Amino acid sequence: TSLAITGAAASRFSFGNLTTGTEYAPGTQNFTISYQSHTAPIEDEVTCVLTTLSGVYTFNVKAVTTPSSPAVAQIRGNSVAISNGDFSPNVSDHTDFGILAAPGVLTRTFTVTNAGPTGCDPLSLTGGTPITFTGAQASRFSVTANTCTAPLASGASCSFTVTFTSGSNGGISNTMIRVANSDAARNPYEFTVRAE
Predict the structure, then answer these.
(1) Residue 195 pLDDT > 80
(2) CA angle, corner 98, sides to 137 and 192, nearest 5?
(3) For 10-44, how does the pLDDT look when each residue is reduced to its tens digit (9 = 90+)?
(4) 196 beta partners
(5) Contact (Cβ atoms closer than 8 angstroms) between residue 193 and residue 177
């Protein structure tokens, strides 16, 4: 018994549970054919020739590689989209927290969504501390709630809450929020917030 796989993509196919040269007893002998997929969309087809004591059997096998689409991170504040790299705080999307009588606190909640197409890769926040703050007044901002602990399928959302604690002397405070995530094109997702 033998199985030959021929065609331009033959190197991507292999078989198992069938030993060349072995004479199998009459009956059923199951065997497997495996395929090594590509990283890009493509269709491969090969011809298989199975030779046994009872005859030669020829059949074709086709395989299609359809890579999944990447996740697309999107962050919103007050239901308004915040672009990655938005460094101009605005009241409408809650990146401008507003004015607070010192001392006191203000909180704003931001929503993370996987805006990729149906069937895309899941979106995850990554690293031990995925949401960080940078800037001279970064210490005045903190994450006080975070539901983004599991991967997000297409269309799914989670949220995190940022709390601003004013200093005793008041004044304007700015910081950049950096959200580490699995969307390679938007990692980290960065935007500036301010409070007064």
Answers:
(1) yes
(2) 45
(3) 999 999 988 888 888 777 788 999 999 887 778 99
(4) none
(5) yes
